[in-house]
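Amino Acid Chain and Its Fold in Token Form
===========================================
What this section holds: a protein sequence and its matching fold, both as plain text.
Structure line: whole-number tokens from a learned vocabulary of local backbone shapes, matched to residues.
Purpose: to set a sequence beside its fold so the mapping can be learned.
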Amino acid sequence: MTQEAATTARLMTAAKEALENYHDVHVDDDGALTFRHSEVPCAVQAMQLAEGLTVLSLTCVVAWDLPPSDELSQSVAERAGQGLFGTLGVVRTERGVDVTLRYAFPAEGMDPSPLGTLLMLVVATASQLRSELLTESEGSV
């Protein structure tokens, strides 16, 4: 096993241990960790960006197939500027608009407890955003 593989494996083990305090965590065939926070599906991956810089990347699918509207675009843009843990993304598809929240951070050496706290801050934000966006979307229909 290469040093990079060993480092990312240790990081994924720590992330899994941290998340299992809050959720049922599944390890996918590619090694990614997946779980749901409320109705928000999330995935965690580890990667080495440069020697000595290994990061965890958390992606939450906040909402999907929302009806496209100027109000939705404005709402997401406003939230993106509010200093969230993570970066909001909007993807337009044939079925509507999908919104994601992504957060990547150097996590090597973090103990499971603070790691779990940080991950939960991000997924709690994603769940809150989902609730708000769905409420706004229902109000505009």
User: Anything to note?
Assistant: The helical segments are 3-19, 70-80, 112-140. The domain at 3-111 is CATH 3.30.1460.10 (Yope Regulator; Chain: A,).
